[in-house]
Specification:
Strand content: 15-25%
Bound molecules: guanosine-5'-diphosphate, manganese (II) ion
Order of helices and strands: HEHEHEHEEEHEHHEEEHHEEHEHEHEHEH
Structural class: alpha+beta
Number of domains: 3
Largest sheet: 6 strands, antiparallel
Shape: elongated
Number of strands: 16
CATH class of the largest domain: Alpha Beta
CATH topology of the largest domain: D-amino Acid Aminotransferase, Chain A, domain 1
Number of helices: 14
Length: 387
């Protein structure tokens, strides 16, 4: 699960990390009122689940409420297109109006899970503000890492090393930064984060250390033990198809290609995507209907896939074990009747009740349905259909 910047800022503040004063608004008028209240120069920031806002023009320093009016109008009436959004961009529904601060230096601080080492890792860099992936590609030595024990947490000697790497020699500033690093590590562990990042952490010309942008992702499997985080969930920012799938107990992840995949079992779904790629195609999604799928669940899966305008062909790949081939055949027939197949649907069924399933499909004589002999045949056929 992801949260907005304003929510991440709240979590930081709760953990003792200093953050400039701010307000969340949804209208131009409220943005101007927030500016009046905060006073001086403010920064108006789009609250969306995507970064790269600064470059896209969706983070604006505003000296007067009139400037805030212009910035807020622009952000609320234009879709934000950044490197992280895709060309269609995303709608902006909320804005953060925050106290604008003077910046002397920008730093990067982030915690992720290092799967290879099986521990969290804190990364810091003097090259803050820009995307950390860019720094990693251009100058990997500019990122300094400390791995820490998930139960013992980030140790004082590690904090000292990281602060040294940031070049913060002033005693007061080092102390303030220590508090930030400790707070971020604590959030990462106590809230079951998969990512907790401050970019940038800044030093003001008068030596204050402040977090002015934050990003946090949380492990969905741990959500059950975080009632406070559950309340922060904003379903309007999620992919609509992914939400629908969640409700139907389907595992669905939207991808960029044009071949919709309907598969049972995550491993089979992975290999289906691999074989599509092997034959030159690009999957439009990952969809695992699971073992205990019902005809209704599978029909919903077809609805979700076929509702995606990017989908130019579908590959159904079912290995009937617990899930029965005839259940899927029934769903195929339902979906064809109900939504109609506007694109070719290549079907490969194997396993439990496959004979009955094939007979059902033959009798239904669905237009656009193309049977396949095996997985390779299916992948070749669907790739040829969308080429
Ligand atoms: P992002 O582009 O989505 O990561 O949004 P950020 O909140 O990180 O803002 C991008 C950049 O805008 C920062 O790296 C800063 O350089 C600048 N910026 C953001 N807030 C302020 C502020 O309060 N004062 C000043 N002077 N610059 C800011
Ligand atoms: Mn940022």
């Amino acid at each position: 699960m992801k949260v907005h910047e304003y929510q991440a800022r709240q979590l930081l503040q709760d953990a003792g990390v200093p953050v400039p004063a701010s307000e969340v608004v949804e209208t131009v008028k409220a943005a101007m009122a927030a500016h009046e209240k905060i006073g001086g120069t403010v920064v108006v920031k789009a609250q969306v689940f995507a970064g790269g806002r600064g470059k896209a023009g969706f983070v604006k320093l505003c000296k007067t409420p009139a400037e805030t009016e212009t910035a807020a109008k622009f952000m609320l009436s234009n879709r934000m297109v950044s490197k992280q959004t895709g060309p269609e961009g995303i709608e902006v529904k909320k804005l953060l109006v925050a106290d604008g601060v003077d910046i002397d230096s920008e730093y990067y601080v982030g915690v992720v899970l290092d799967r290879a080492r099986r521990t969290p890792v804190m990364m810091v860099s003097r090259e803050g503000g820009v995307e950390i992936e860019e720094v990693a590609a251009r100058n990997p030595d500019a990122i300094v890492k400390e791995w820490f024990h998930p139960h013992l947490g980030l140790q004082s000697f590690q904090i000292a090393k990281l602060i040294g790497a940031l070049g913060l020699t002033d005693k007061e500033q080092a102390k303030a930064t220590a508090k930030v690093l400790r707070g971020l590590a604590k959030i990462f562990l106590s809230k079951d984060c998969s990512l907790a990042e401050i970019n940038p952490l800044i030093r003001t010309p008068d030596g204050q250390i402040l977090a002015i942008d934050a990003k946090m992702n949380f492990d969905d499997s741990a959500m059950f033990r975080h009632a406070d985080l559950q309340k922060m969930h904003d379903p309007t920012e999620e992919n609509e198809a992914e939400l629908r799938a969640q409700k139907a107990d389907l595992t669905y992840i939207a991808l960029d290609g044009n071949i919709g995949c309907l598969v049972n079992g995550a491993g089979l779904a992975m290999s289906t995507m691999d074989i599509i790629k092997l034959h030159g195609g690009e999957p439009a999604n990952f969809l695992d209907v699971g073992g205990s799928v019902t005809a209704e669940g599978a029909t919903e899966a077809f609805r979700i896939i076929l509702a995606d305008p990017k989908v130019k062909g579908v590959l159904v790949n079912i290995f009937g074990g617990i899930a029965k081939c005839d259940t899927i055949a029934e769903a195929l027939i339902n979906a064809a009747k109900e939504v109609g197949f506007n694109v070719p649907v290549v079907v490969r069924l194997e396993g439990t009740n496959v004979e009955r399933a094939r007979a059902m499909l033959k009798e239904a004589a669905i237009k656009q349905l193309i049977p396949a002999d095996d997985l390779t045949d299916a992948a070749k056929k669907v790739c040829a259909q969308v080429a």
